[in-house]
Design a protein that fits this description.
The complex is a heterodimer of chains A (about 80) and B (about 325). Chain A is built from 3 helices and no strands. With about 80 residues, chain A is mostly helical. With about 325 residues, chain B is mainly alpha-helical. The two termini of chain B are about 30 Å apart. The chains are: A mainly alpha (about 80), B mainly alpha (about 325). At the A-B interface, helix 1, helix 2 and helix 3 of A face strand 4, helix 6, helix 10, helix 11 and helix 12 of B.
Amino acid sequence: MKGSSVYTFIFVMWILIILGGGISILILAPISISGYGEFDQILSSGIKAIVAFGLVVAWIFILTKIKNWIFETELKD
Amino acid sequence: MQDQIIAAVLVSAIAFFTVYFFTPLLIKFLEKRNLTVKDYHRKGGAMVARPGGPAIISGIVASEMALYVLMPIVRVEISAIVITTILAFFVGLVDDKKVMGGWFKPLALALTVVPIILLGAYDTDLAFPLFGAVKIPLLYIVVAIFMIPITGNTINSIDVLNGVASGFMVIASSALTISLIILENYEIAIASLSLVFVSLAFYKYHKFPCKIFPGDSGALTLGAMYGAIAIVGEVEVIAAVALGPAIINSFLFLSSMKRIVEHREIKSKPVVLTDDYKLKATADKDASVTLVRLILAGGPLTEKEIGSVIFKLTVFSGFLAILTAFLMGVSL
């Protein structure tokens, strides 16, 4: 089937989106800073942003590795 | 419910027929003024009118204005979607008239999200299937700022063959509309129907052998509206899933080029034309890796055959997007 490896990649990407979402909820949702008054929300959001950025970088890294593995033959061609 | 059905039928009809009747006039107008470009993949290299963006935006504005009148409860949301889409159209139009640098479109498209933020037509909860939602008040603004450049540029980057961008958008936005209906967000689903029928009417003239290219103004308009609906309809994750093949195309391109670069700046082409007017993957190591190049790894194909493979991949992504919408209602 033409582009069959792309179907696999789309499916893997979907699984990674769901798992990545789950991980981000488990890690990001509980983050809450208190004791800094009006800065609480800004600090919480800042930390969430840094963690989220790290998760996105990790997600892209994993996706790149999977891409190389799935498309090994095609990319060599 | 009856009001919503009437609105859905009217919006769909206005979107479809505005583009259906306006596009031939636009083609004549563009051809008269020599605003044509060569279709290199076609035998004889026919000259094709460009850009089709004005026809696309006219269908979107006309149909969304009808929805604005018919559904007063979502006027803020409709305004946010339409203003963002119009701004993206002008970003594309600038790029159609003058070749801008690789960074122009992402930066300019990032600014098009401002109306959505100013009108407050978004929710700070980011919902994921099975795991629920996470509240990210300030971080969500960053997500929204990235959303429109990503959707706009992914549609623009897949606009490489006759009919692909418009046909792709018909399938992806249909999946998004069905997902919105599953999530009982009926008003935004009707707004999304406009995108389905505008794309469908434009596909009639854009399919192989195409009579008009959408240009950056057309592709960015379609992509930005899709992104705006995703934000306003709170279906960001589902929208990303439905865009699967286009996201893979951008991902492969960026990971092979390792920088943001305008397609026109790249000298080595990822595909070449054979003597019998089929496309085949190039052996040039400096050429970017793209979705079309991967599809052609199995051997040369005609432009029509490649389009068919991309549409099948999009149907698969659309199915996963609808499945994701069902899973939104399931909690682990």
